[in-house]
Amino acid sequence: MAKVSLRSVRKSYGATKVIHGVDCEIADGEFLVVVGPSGCGKSTLLRMVAGLESITEGEIAIGERVVNALEPAERDIAMVFQNYALYPHMSVFDNMAYGLKIRRLSKDEIRRRVEEAAGILELGALLDRKPRQLSGGQRQRVAMGRAIVREPSVFLFDEPLSNLDAKLRVQMRVEIKRLQERLGITSLYVTHDQVEAMTLGHRLLVLSEGVVEQLGAPIELYEKPATRFVAGFIGSPSMNFLETKLTDDGRHVVLPGGDTLALDGAAAAANGTSPGRPVTLGIRPEHLEIVEESRASAHLTVELVEQLGADSLIHGRLGDESGPAMTVRLQGIHAPGSGESLPLLAMPAHIHLFDPESGVRV
Amino acid sequence: MVESRRWLIWLTHGILLLGVAVVAFPIYVTFVASTHSLQDVVQSPMPVLPGGELVANYLQALAEGLGEGAGTQSIGAGRMMLNSLVMALGIAFGKIAISIIAAFAIVYFRFPFRMAAFWLIFFTLMLPVEVRILPTYQVVADLGMLDSYAGLTIPLIASATATFMFRQVFLAVPDELTEAARIDGAGPLRFFWDVLLPLSRTNIAALFVILFIYGWNQYLWPLLITTDQSLLTIVIGINRMLEVGDDQAEWQIVMATTMLAMIPPILVVVAMQKLFVKGLVETEK
Fold first, then answer.
1. What is the tens place of the pLDDT at every residue in B91-106?
2. B70: pLDDT confidence band, cut at 50, 70 and 90?
3. A contact residues 37-56, partner B, Cβ 8 Å cutoff
4. Pairing of β A186-191 and β A31-35
5. What is the domain count for chain B?
6. What span, in angstroms and rounded, lies between the C-alpha atoms of A118 and A114?
7. CB-based contact B186 A102, cutoff 8 Å
8. Cα B109 to Cα A12, A109, B117, distances in angstroms
9. What is the chain A residue with the closest CA to B186?
10. I want to staple A160 with a disulfide (CB 3.0 to 4.6 A). Which of A27, A80, A204, A233 is the partner?
11. Between A and B, how many residue pairs show a Cβ–Cβ distance under 8 A?
């Protein structure tokens, strides 16, 4: 059990900077998910905590101990890899026991720990098998078991679910969550999948090109994305964006075709000082409604409908066919025809405004 | 391609049988010749069926070879096979040991001139024993290793091919495995011993078969390096038996020795076959 502190952690390979200073405190027992698109440096960050990559600048502490100069084995961590990295020639038991054998634990203690972990993960019947005789989900469990038996102060997960099929992924996601809550071990989890991130993490750290975009609870990120990047990354289907500007009174935004859209009180008040400035308007597909003509703030020209059963996703363009692309998510089954024009209402409380240049929320 | 016409089946089997016959017939003749007395062997035509001298011929071949009569004092095939065995095993084990360690260093450690070392090893691929035979002979002679097992084996141990092969094997081992071992606390030697060596098991077996036969069949090098009769390898020994000048070569003994010379490589192949094939085709790491 320990907290993990990252203090202005930077990483560069030669002149190429990969991580531009990450500051973050992970509380004891917290589940922090680092999420971002591929190539954003999230795996590098995790590997720096693990000790597999050197730290160019800054400090990483596990508990009270600065670990910059320690070997991975001395950091009291356990890591689950994307491809599981099981030793192919060892049985499930030996895979889990290997690290303990090296630490010269007694045979009884090793057996006790492995059997306990196998019990938690329902691997009891598989202890004599070789990894190649296991299914993907079972291998995944063995990899987790190998981490558990070490009884580390920190778990590190490097996209552990991305090699599984969709159904198994959901199942393992729940298992990981349950396991982490049961063991209460501080965890750092890297993924590019925002659904995984939202469901697993106590807090999320959104990383883009080596810069922390936002750090906060999942719902906070969903409701108040700090930047346009976070707004577009969190939520599926992703947020609709519209390049536009404020009206002169600062209480409305201009829509294509000349209509204006009223902002709710808070947003309007925040923007009262800069009337007429250009802004990026963001609204999630689920915060758009089809209403009767009289209440409509704009119109959507339908291009394509995706039926998901519980929801329908309507892709279309705002205004006529040349307008900006927009997706609407409606509950239940809707099947408007292509080319149809639907009256649309944006819920004012859910409109986000971003600075078009910096992408920062205004 | 699946063809089920009847005459095609006959044709393909016919060709296969012909191929087998071409390979097997000389061996059969050798065997037949090794079971007759000299008079029977040299008469024309030679008998086609095995004769009754099998035990006597093989015992003589194993124990005393051609005996004192052949001019030089002679040693039996037993001793020659032992010499060949020492040489073949020495070369096979030596090469595997040296090259797996070299490959380990090149793949897993960052040391100055690492790539230079690799390319130097790689370039020696282009230099077979025959090309460097005179300088190598000189070195061995200066070191006083002529007429010794060390002289027979050590100069043939360095192997670019095997180093290269192990390098490829190690490169195919996922990085995550190395990292998992690091997190588990395994040092480099521990990792080599516990992970890399078991993972290369089939490759080692395949290489062993190839190298054993390579060592067993060495001709030029032992010919140069040994003058002592007691160090004759069996390949050289067979050749010596035929250098009888105007005398009649004792074909039945020569043939028996030849048959004996074929046995160890066959045993090695048969014993290792399963691993050998696995080592050549296996891709899963």
1. 999 999 999 999 999 9
2. very low
3. 50-52
4. parallel
5. 1
6. 6
7. yes
8. 21, 34, 12
9. A102
10. A80
11. 61
